[in-house]
Amino acid sequence: MVAANTEPDQKADSAGGRLTVSRSGDIATITIDHAGKRNALTAAMWAQFAPVLAELADDPGVTVLVVRGAGADFSAGADIGDLDAILTGESDGGVMTEAEDALAAFPKPTIAAIDGHCVGGGWELAGACDLRICSDRSTFGVTPSRLGIVYPRSGIERLVAIAGPAVAKHLLFSGELVSPQTAAAWGLVTKVLPAEGFWDAVGAFASLIVSRSQFSIRATKEIVDAVAAGGDGVAEAVARWLATPSGDRAIGVAAFLGKRPPEFTWGSGTP
Q1: Three-state DSSP class for residue 112
Q2: DSSP assignment string, 201-252
Q3: Which of 182, 218, 257, 269 is deepest in the core (most CB within 10 A)?
Q4: How many helices (H) and strands (E) does the chain have?
Q5: C-beta separation of 27 from 9 below 8 A
Q6: Which pLDDT tens digit goes with each residue over 43-94?
């Protein structure tokens, strides 16, 4: 179970809600917690993502990051009562975009563990993660057309990259809520798991990622992101990682030939 039995080691409190960071071994979990509002995020909560993520990125004890909501929901998105403050800033999405960009730039593998509502800005955060796993009682929606606002450019770009322009337009135009099965068919999530035992399954999957070569995963993450972004960054990323020393290949080959689980060492004790 992801960080379920671990006391929070960091709290970022804001009026009416907070982010909580907890740890279970090499797995860190950011929990969005706003009781009574389906974990809707205030401006202060959005603003806490960047500093919290920066600290976790520099922590050598963190290998995988899970993002989830407290209780029965992931997040209903931006707290409507705080919308003016949320959308104020240098970018068109204000602190929402700043949080999304910080999560997308996090150098280690990230998993959005989605139970219940994942709507609006909640989807924006989930979409910024590398992987999205949901329970079979989840609900998805991107709802600016219900509010008369323009969804942040970064969120639209990421939604189009994940699901394609037709699905992005369907969600943005209609504002309708869709089932986890539809979300999976449209590519919004990679796994739909039973609600019963969901958190244990998420923890097992995160632990599986921890057990793999972090050299391979970190290189692959950067290269895939460069491919998705287009431009000249792909060749540079490939060249840099090919020049990065790692003993993981020798460890992996020896373990395969010896028919035993590998114990990779790259990244141990470093951010």
Answers
A1: strand
A2: HHHHHHHHHHHS-HHHHHHHHHHHHHHHH-TTHHHHHHHHHHTS--SHHHHH
A3: 218
A4: 12, 9
A5: no
A6: 999 999 999 999 999 999 999 999 999 999 999 998 888 877 777 766 677 8
